[in-house]
């Protein structure tokens, strides 16, 4: 069956599904997603509502994540301005790599618990608290005087940063339905690429302060990045609403329509949006949860190592560039990664396809790493950096949306997304060691290991794609209709992804 015959997340009736041989069935399936919603909320009203949400929510969460990512990875920029020397890290040791990776120990430990409790609290205030405390830790990291103090700060930074990313992914799913969420996730997650670019720009500018007031440049980089984060935390509760039902910037009609748009999707009942122990258990026992988690481990391992070591990789290309020039050269690499990701996310929402972009992104990264391994001159190696960036954000960002849209019940979605992010971020512990000082300037072992992880990721995402495709085919042919026997309409709607009317997003 061709892809056009299996439209993602469709809604159809059992009679239509049993008519698998009828040529009109594909057309019905393609139109079913929108038809059910538009009978209650017309397209123009939905667009107007989305504009209101976008103007209020998206800029703030993008700014928060910009601060988050810069505070986490600016250690890569700081390295070029005396960090290791000032803190007494021996030349040739892996203490720097340890300081980078240790953050992810606490980061991973606190992600899933945070994801399970955020909805029990006021999400906007909870997120503001996280921003405030990691901002304080990030700011005071500038005052470290030895390696032990740096490690302690990185561990604390991981504690408070852990809840932000999974929390925002869940937060967005409260306001945007699955047809519209991928592009919003892209704006949010893609900000990490902008953070990398701005980090290089800020480091380039702040590097001129090296020696001012008796401080080395690395201290200024960390301090000036940390202070805006603390100030941002004071504004967050006044901008972000806690839920659609309490969003003060929406009219009463807007709030009703927003809740209705979410609930009219198959599986999106009021009960399904509560945290149930059985849903959490179902997430833990589902092989797809772990396939997504391992796939994201492969992707985020590449993303974190690439983001932290990009200045070092460019510096070691042998072109003789100054530290300031190296910082500037990271900027276009990140901007290209962001631009490609946003375009792919827009097209992903338009086509309601996700897996193709995860797989294609990883394959693109493999090509980029091959360019770097070839080491056939500065031009080819620098081009490899651009190609890697084109695939990294697209593949890892789309995977976050893919797992969410295929888990309509909140408890399972919270657990599955939490584990995907937790295990994915666990790669941050080992990622810094892919680029050991002993392997400079070619870093062949690191590039080779990166390609191996990417091949594993391609295998997992390809398997998920074909499994979803096969399940959709079974539902369209009526082979899953037995699940509805003896059930009321309300009970059928509570089946979540097992509802025969629910089609997976490919």
TrEMBL record:
Residues 1-32 are annotated as: Disordered. Residues 57-475 form the Major facilitator superfamily (MFS) profile domain. The chain crosses the membrane at residues 57-75, 95-112, 124-143, 149-174, 186-206, 218-240, 290-314, 326-348, 355-374, 380-403, 415-435, 447-468. Its main location: membrane. It comes from the Eukaryota. Residues 1-12 have a biased composition (Polar residues). Keywords: Membrane, Transmembrane, Transmembrane helix, Transport. The keyword Cell inner membrane does not apply. Pfam families: MFS_1 (PF07690). It is found in: Membrane. InterPro entries: MFS, MFS_dom, MFS_trans_sf. GO terms for cellular component: membrane. It is a multi-pass membrane protein. One of its GO terms (molecular function) is transmembrane transporter activity. This is Major facilitator superfamily (MFS) profile domain-containing protein. It comes from Curvularia kusanoi.
């Amino acid at each position: 069956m061709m892809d056009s015959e299996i439209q993602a997340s469709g809604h159809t009736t059992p009679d239509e599904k049993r008519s698998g041989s009828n040529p009109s069935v594909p057309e019905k399936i393609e139109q079913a997603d929108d038809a059910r919603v538009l009978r209650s909320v017309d397209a123009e009203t939905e667009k107007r509502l989305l504009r209101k949400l976008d103007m209020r929510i998206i800029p703030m969460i993008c700014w928060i994540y910009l601060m988050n990512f810069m505070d986490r990875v600016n250690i890569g920029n700081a390295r070029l301005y005396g960090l290791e020397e000032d803190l007494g890290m021996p030349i040739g040791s892996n203490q720097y790599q340890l300081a980078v990776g240790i953050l992810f120990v606490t980061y991973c430990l606190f992600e899933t618990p945070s994801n399970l409790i955020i909805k029990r609290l006021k999400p906007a205030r909870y997120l503001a608290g996280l921003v405030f405390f990691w901002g304080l830790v990030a700011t005071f990291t500038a005052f470290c005087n030895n390696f032990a103090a740096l490690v302690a700060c990185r561990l604390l930074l991981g504690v408070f940063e852990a809840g932000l990313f999974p929390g925002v992914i869940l937060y967005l799913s409260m306001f945007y339905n699955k047809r519209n969420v991928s592009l919003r996730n892209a704006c949010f997650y893609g900000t990490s690429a902008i953070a990398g670019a701005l980090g290089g720009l800020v480091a380039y500018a702040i590097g001129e302060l090296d020696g001012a007031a008796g401080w080395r440049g690395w201290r200024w980089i960390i301090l000036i990045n940390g202070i805006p984060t603390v100030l941002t935390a004071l504004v967050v509760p006044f901008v972000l609403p806690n839920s659609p039902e309490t969003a003060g910037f929406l009219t009463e009609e807007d709030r009703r329509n927003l809740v209705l748009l979410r609930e009219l999707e198959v599986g999106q009942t009021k009960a399904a949006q509560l945290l149930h122990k059985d849903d959490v258990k179902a997430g833990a026992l589902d092989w797809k949860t772990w396939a997504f988690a391992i796939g994201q481990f492969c992707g985020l391992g590449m993303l974190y190592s690439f983001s932290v070591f990009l200045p070092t990789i460019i510096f070691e290309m042998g072109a003789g560039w100054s530290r300031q020039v190296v910082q500037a050269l990271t900027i276009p690499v990140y901007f290209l990664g962001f631009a490609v990701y946003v375009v792919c996310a827009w097209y992903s929402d338009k086509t309601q396809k996700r897996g193709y972009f995860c797989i294609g992104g990883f394959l693109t990264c493999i090509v980029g790493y091959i360019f770097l391994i070839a080491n056939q001159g500065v031009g080819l190696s620098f081009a490899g950096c651009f190609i890697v960036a084109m695939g990294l954000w697209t593949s890892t960002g789309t995977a976050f949306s893919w797992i969410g849209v295929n888990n309509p019940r909140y408890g399972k979605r919270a657990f599955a997304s939490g584990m995907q992010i937790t295990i994915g971020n666990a790669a941050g512990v080992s990622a810094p060691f892919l680029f050991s000082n002993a392997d400079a300037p070619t870093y062949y072992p690191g590039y080779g290991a990166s390609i191996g992880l990417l091949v594993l990721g391609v295998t997992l995402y390809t398997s998920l794609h074909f499994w979803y495709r096969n399940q959709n085919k079974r539902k369209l042919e009526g082979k899953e209709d037995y699940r509805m026997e003896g059930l009321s309409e309300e009970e059928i709607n509570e089946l979540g992804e097992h509802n025969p009317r629910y089609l997976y997003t490919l």
